Records
---
Amino acid sequence: ISYISSAYAGSVSDRAIVERSNLTKKTEPGDSIMADRGFTVQDLFAPIYVSINIPAFLKGKTQLPGLTLLKDRKLASKRVHIERLIGLTKTYKILKTDLPVYFVPLGREIFYVCCILCNFRENIVSADA
């Protein structure tokens, strides 16, 4: 895990989170961000040559074109690793239940420590993936 944003309420948009976290300043030309369909901030990253990889969707078609299908399969294989990493963070007991009210002010720090600890665990992605 190399970046963790601050926590935001569910009503805060992806755009607002990207802008408030200065994520565009934490990326470099050639970086690639994996995102879901609703992540509509490509215009913020295009000027700094950071690509946003979003899975294609059919839009009324019955099948994706060959190159798009191949790209999506590769993207999905990488996405599996991210889902596994998210699952790994949830193995810490403190993150398995609702945070007690007296820990809420420390919520970000608690999550941060759990993510950092994940970096010390056995690799979940092989070097050739």
---
Amino acid sequence: MIEPVGGVVDGSSDALDALAAEDLAPLFGPALLERPRLRGADLRRPRPLACDGAVTRIVLGPDGTPLDHGRTHRLVPAHLRRAVEVRDQGRVFTGCQAPTAWCDVHRVPAWIDGGDTSLANSALLCERHRTEVHHGFRVERRPDGRWHTWRPDGTRIPTGPGSTGPPLTTAA
């Protein structure tokens, strides 16, 4: 059992001073102790390295390229931008004709509202429409993969040819 030195886990620096690999076995299984470097290890040394760390998930595509960085990356990596461009075949705001090169990847919800950096949470918007989204307009990806745009008053902007992206395709 993991027990804090001070008796109470309160966020103070001594909360994990007595942690050893054996303490983690009930949580992660006996396979943890089969790792030669961890068996009998005192895990106090890595603690300073982890004090500013974050636990996150990273979802990989079939080629091993990360497609979901959670909230560890605010800026969108080039490979994720390419994946968004391929998926949406251009910008997603209804009626937008801006060249794809003029667009940025926007998170839905936005980063400031807790949105993460992932393919599922990304939309390609030009600067003008990205600003409009930050001022009350809304883009929404439907379960079929098509994008819809909503005005601040809640009315939907009718879709036009080529403005909503392709339907969602799934593997058979």
---
Amino acid sequence: MRHLLAAALFAIASPATSTILVNSSFAPDSYYMGTGGDMETLSADLAGQPGGYAFGALDDAAAVAAASALFINLRMFDIGSYDDPVGQDQQFTDAEIANVNAFLATGKRVVIVGDNQSFSNWDKSILALAGNNAPDTLLGSNGLALPIVANELTEGTGPLNIIFGGSHTTGGIDLYEQQAVTLWRAQSNLLTILDVNVLDDVYGNRRFQQNVAAWLGASAATELPEPATWAAFVIGFGLIGATMRQRRFTVRSA
């Protein structure tokens, strides 16, 4: 019985591999994600993490909850061209905010990508979700930004190349100069990057791309069972124990 219990506990403590969810604003092989996209190497890095990645909708509560981590890319258009200005005004919906907040509460990791001040409504929506007290404070950043915090995201990166006037703001834990790359929440499990070009292949931030993918992959590798799963196992073990005790009592009585 003790060996059975130990084996079962080890099994539930060793998490099943699940998938990094990428928001479905970008279909595979599109402007950014997948083969031929500006983030082709980052896409390959995400695919190489435990469980890989899959596209999904942030308003799908079940899909979000089942993911190991979230990579939320710049939302700048609906279905249309890169130059469609309508998408620049997009923000998170109430359902998406609720789902992402519930996900963050589990301790699992989320990356949200913004861009320069042309996409200020999207950036403000990101910062409001992050819990920034002054989401209207968006300032321009440009050029090389040196790391100012030593952790798994900045390790081996050197200065980041920030192009086209990326945004930055106050609050959170800034990882680099110019406040464009920031960790948020008590568990530091929300990373915001307020310049999509930081993750593009052409701007020389390769090590940072790898670190971001590995950071999300670590969320997948350390995911714990949901409380309901633990409860089911505890009840099951209790029933097994009760059955074993009943059998011993029956044998002794006979």
---
Amino acid sequence: MPHSKPTSKKYQKGETIQIITRDQIRSIKIPRDPSDSINLPSAEFKRIISASQVTTKEETEALKEAYRRKKEAEFKAAEERKRQLYEIDLSRTENPALADLERDAQKWSEYLMKRVNAEMEQEEEIKNLNKLILNAQCQSIRDQQIQEKKKIQAKLSKEERRLDAMMEVDRLKALETEGQIEELQKKQRVKGMQQLHHQIQVRLEEKQLQDVTKELERQHMQETQEKMNLEDLEALEKKKLQQQRLHMEVMRINAENIQAKEQRREEERLADLRIMEYNQRKLEQEAEYEAEQKRVKREKESVISRLRTRQEKVKDYMAEQNERHARRIQEISDRQWRREQKELALKKAQEEAMLRAARMEQVHCKERFLSMEAGRERADFNRVLKVQEQALVRQKEMEEKQREKALRHADTIRQQIREHELSAIAKRREIFQQAHELTNEDHERLVRLNEVKETKLKKLRTMGLSEKCCKEVERKARDCTQNPQCEEQQNLPMMHKKSSEADLSTTFLPPISNPAKDTVRNLQYSDSNTCLPPIRNALPQRSRNQ
């Protein structure tokens, strides 16, 4: 069976190509070079297909029954041939050997019969009948090829749908995976926010605890100071006898206080610059505190009115020192609290800045990744588009070359057809010139023609063609017998039938071996890769030229 070599690009085994459609891009792996394909006869292809299908028990029984019937028919045919051979042998034994003259006469009659048969084969009606038979055989083979092509196309379509379904499943799986990744990222973000909120709550609780601790310490210091004041009053009342020692202690304390005062003045000078703003907010508190101290002082003065003026001065001085000491302790505590608050705020700001920087870095990384992915996909798309454009250009060039080749070959075919027509016209003229000489032989020729036709038609039925095809050949043979001018209309009776189904670029004419092969060969391309549709496009020119 002739076949054409594919003109498409050769692919290496294991290579993948990308196919871009309207809504997706998919990669297909090339399992092997398509040029290595093998064309099988239809019988072998049907045998392989039937062997690859799993049959049921009923089908197996039916096949066995058909095989058994076939064997019985073959056995009966063999018995019939055996019987015929036996009868022939029996007839030979019954009839004596012929004489030499009879054998020569028999050989001469056989020779004449062969010449008559050869001349009958050259008759136009027999030629037309041979053409009809050849066309019927070609059409039968062509129908089988079309059916095989349809089956192959159906299988290819089924495989394409299966691949599309697989790609759809892969796409749904990818979407599901992407959704799971987004859900996981969302959970991680929520978890991070919860951790951050928890840290904020812990720090607020720590701050509140520190505030409560500081308040308790302040109250404790105040209570301690009041207790010390009461103890001092009791000590003054109980230790009148120790005034001298107290006086010496006071002098020593005064000296230390003077020295401490100088030092405190320097410290206060530096501290005042730092706590000026704080003092402005504490003026009201200090006023209340001083009023309270004055009230306490008045109470103390009423209590120690019995003391001497010197003791009152000492007490006033001690109260003033204690007040300053308490104020200094309070200021130190406030400065420490403000420093801690500032450190906490600075640390919180640094953490927030780090979180913002990390978030911005993640956003930038994602943007860069998306940009790189888009660039890569764009480059792949442009590369595939360029390859497809080059393939389209090459395909157009090949189609143009094939079209020019088909036109040239069509001209050659038309020339051959014209030559054939001229030859047929010349033959008909010779027949018309000799018609008056063949009047007596017409009856015998018609009888012989009918016998040959009947023989050929019976032989055609034994070839396995369909009943419809055989009846069509018989009808056209009768039409040609009744109307001799139908010869040119019957040259290609089957070529234009089912033109829509036969428009397949891979369906080729099978090689033909018969007495009229020279006539049919003129209708074929000399190139083994030339397919049938261009012949159909070229042959109708004959009727228009006529």
